[in-house]
Amino acid sequence: MADFKTRIDDLTGFASTDDTALNDWLSAGARSVMNVLPLNKLERVASNENFTNNIDVEGKKILSVVRKDNNHASKIYTPCRKLPPSMMGRVNDTNYMEAASESDPAYIIQNDVLNTYPGSNASNDSRVVFVNSSITVAHGDSAIANFPDEAEEAVVLYGARNALNRLMNAMNTIGALTISVNAPSTPDAPSISYSDASVDSSVSSAQDAVATAQDAIAAAQDSIAAAQDGYTGETSVSAGSASGSTDSAYSKVTPTTSGSGSLTTLTAGAKGTADDQIDSDKFFDVAADLIETDEDVELATAQIAKINSYVNAFKTEVENEKAAMAATIKDAELATQASVASARETTRANTAIASSKTTAGTAKMQASTSAATAKMQASTSAATAKMQASTGAAVQKMQTSTSAAIELMRQSTSVAVQNQARTLEAAIQDYVQEISRFQVDIGKFSANVNKEVQQFNSNLQKDIAKYNWYEKQYAQIDARYKEQIQTLQGVL
Asked: Disulfide-capable partner of 441 in 161, 166, 184, 397 (CB 3.0 to 4.6 Å)?
């Protein structure tokens, strides 16, 4: 018979290299099937092991436990009753019906250890009958040792169910549609521009300007200022000046004070200090110290008297300064009045002399001005005639030159417009061809995309069909597994 991996692959198409998963599924299937098998099938594959007092039963499915009857002549094995761990005390107490004896032994399983009661009388006088519940099955095996042959098919079906589950789980996510072809690049918008046509010879460069062809009136005539004899008989009149002795202006009087002090500024001082005894700005601080700090009324009174004497002397000095200032102001007023009177007389004399000179100068100026005016009129008439003749010639030359320039501009402009039109047509034609190529590329791109979409849909339909087959196959194998279990249990 084929090994288990081949048999599972025949049912599912699993064909996996995940042999570890197959081993796990087969081992789990064998243990699951063993748990539901009837006793008569397990007894055919059961093992036994002798022990004294207790034995580790982890991984063993217990079928029966026996113990030798020490009171029997043949020391026969007697079946043991199974008691729960809660009877641990009563099993040894003959006052309870649960108490064990040589002819009616018992066993209790606790913490994976099986104990027999009463205790052993000899070595290995107890025996356990079991099947291996920790059985392992390898994918390369074709049979299971110490396992009913008729139950192996159920183990294969159990593994096949799990393999189908794995295959369906691997298909639970549908891959996103990906397009491998790249869309063509959109052509850049053309930069089509038109440059204004330029005239080779402009009107302004072809003509001679009137301004340069004619002689300006200003250059042809003699100006009045240059033609006339200037008048030079001007007379200056000087006025008398007044002066007074007012140089000694009054300034603010600041009476002198002793030391470096000032009566308007108060500074901290210290009594008994030589400098502070003569600095007037520290007198008041020293007095305050005598009054408030030392509370020496006598010295304070003397200090205040000293301050009052100094203030009175200061007032006297101020009054003297005021009297001197008043005398200075009076002298200045008298000197100013005398100077003003003298200046008035001088001005009157100068005015009379200037009036006489002005009358003679006016007559001379009138005569000079008449001669200059006549000379200017003659010069201006000649300049005007010359300007008219020059201007007429310039205008005629300008008209002829302008007509030629206009004709040249018309011809040049026509050629430039034709060239620009052809350039524009060529640029538009290039862009139209590029658009046509882009449309062809778009058609190819759309066809490739449709092809890939169709392939994706085709693959998707195949996956759906495969998944549906897995579901149907799983249902069939699951039904066969359950039917196999019922057959093994004798239900069917």
From this structure: 184
Distances (CA, A) of 163 to 22, 172, 471, 476: 8, 15, 12, 14
| Confidence at residue 207, expressed as pLDDT on a 0 to 100 scale | 52
Q: 296-300: which pairs have CB atoms within 8 A and are 24 or more residues apart?
A: none
Do residues 3 and 140 touch, judged by C-beta distance below 8 A?
yes
Q: Where are the domains of the chain?
A: 4-170, 203-472
Predicted pLDDT at 137 = 95
CB 221 within 8 A of CB 241: no
For strands 54-56 and 60-68, give the pairing: unpaired
Give me the pLDDT at residue 182, please.
83
User: What pLDDT does 315 receive?
Assistant: 82
Task: Tell me the pTM.
Answer: 0.48
Could you tell me if 118 and 102 are in contact, meaning their C-beta atoms sit under 8 angstroms apart?
yes
Q: Which residues are CB-contacts of 424 (< 8 A; sequence separation ≥ 6)?
A: 192, 194
Place of tokens 């113990």: 67
Please, which residues have CB within 8 angstroms of residue 405's CB and are 6 or more apart in sequence? 201, 202, 203, 205, 206, 207
- Residue 34: both structure tokens together: 């063993």
Under-50 pLDDT residues of the chain: 206, 210, 213-218, 220-225, 227-229, 231, 234-235, 237, 242, 244-250
Residue the block writes with tokens 């096949």: 160
Compute the distance between CA of residue 253 and CA of residue 250 in angstroms, rounded to an integer: 9
In the prediction, which pLDDT does 196 show? Answer: 58
Q: Angle at CA 36, nearest 5°, toward 33 and 39?
A: 115
| Beta-carbon-side half-sphere exposure of residue 114 (alpha carbons within 13 Å) | 27
Both tokens of residue 380? 């201006």
3-state secondary structure of 180: coil
Q: Which residues lie closer than 8 Å to 380 by C-beta, 6 or more apart?
A: 217, 221
Residues β-bridged to residue 115: 54, 108
pLDDT of residue 298: 85
Angle formed at CA 407 by CA 404 and CA 411, multiple of 5 degrees: 140
Tell me how far apart the alpha carbons of residues 20 and 362 are, in angstroms, rounded to a whole number: 141
Tell me the two tokens of residue 464. Answer: 């759906």
Cβ neighbours, 10 Å, residue 485: 19
- What pLDDT score was predicted for residue 384? 67
| CA geometry: angle 53, 55, 58, nearest 5 deg | 155
Take residue 19 and report the two structure tokens written for it.
Answer: 């042999």
For 183, half-sphere exposure in the C-beta direction (CA atoms, 13 angstrom radius) is: 3
Rounded CA-CA distance 29/477 in Å is 14
The pair of three-digit structure tokens given for residue 474, joined into one six-digit string: 């799983």
Tokens (6 digits) for 73: 């002549």
> Is the sign of the CA dihedral 10, 11, 15, 17 positive or negative?
negative
Distance set, CA 420 to CA 193, 368, 409, 428 (Å): 9, 72, 16, 12
Which strands make up the sheet holding 81-83, listed edge to edge? Answer: 54-56, 113-117, 106-110, 81-83
